[in-house]
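User: structure tokens for Membrane protein, please.
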Amino acid sequence: MSSVTPPSGLSTLFIACDNICDYIPVISTITNLFFGILEKMVLVYVQSTSLKENHYFSYIKDKSIFRCITLLVPFLGNILVGILDLINKKPKEENDFDFLARIQGIDLSAMPKSIYENNLVKAQEMINALTESLDSQIENLKGALNDFKSASVQPQIINEEWNEIKTSFSDIKKQKVALENSKLSQHPKIFPKLQKLLDLQKSFIAWRHSNYKKYIDTLTNEETLKEAQRYYISTFNPLFKPLEIESPKELMAAVLNRIEDLAKSDEEHLIIELEELHLKFNSSLV
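Assistant: Done. Predicted tokens:
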């Protein structure tokens, strides 16, 4: 996630002081002559990158020359600038950069316009990349579900390809956690797309439950036992091989324990087959 860099404490202080001085007659004349017009003239010839990126000097550079000249006139200039500031002080719709700053608790009031606009472009690019990624995942998952629902797809092929889908579901969970931790999931463009992706995942899981139940209903007790043993072992790390269990009752107990362990990870897609196999155990093997 892109982070917003707040202005330094010194820059914030100088900018705040300059803003206050703009409303004080005579003082505003001095500050806008020496710290406004003269500094703006000097900054034209400055080549230092660090100075150009400094929030205070960027603020001076962005400050309207019309404002500086107007404030050279005591009283009348202050009144005119005050009126213009009131007119221009309108509530604006939150953009992508405002959102990023808000969720990070950063005040942008002292950020110069040029730095703000540069960061706005970067924020828009980041949010657009995230939404495009979510759109792509939604289309891919929707396409996979439609393919799986096709009558021409054999159960064995579905069982083999399901492993890839489970991997994508694990990736979706990691992405969801990352977006929630960074609070990006609250973004008005990201929130509905993330919810759509999660809803599609739930639909896929529900379909897999139904489809796999139909599949194991066609198996003999012996075939079901082998299927349960295979899925039970597949839920463990490849480096760890649990003992094979021959007794149906022992296997049923082991499967139930494994379901309870995996349920704690909040990844329902990992236990679909074990749940359906356990239900069949209860109905036919015991």
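User: Anything notable?

Assistant: The chain has two domains: 9-90, 131-285.
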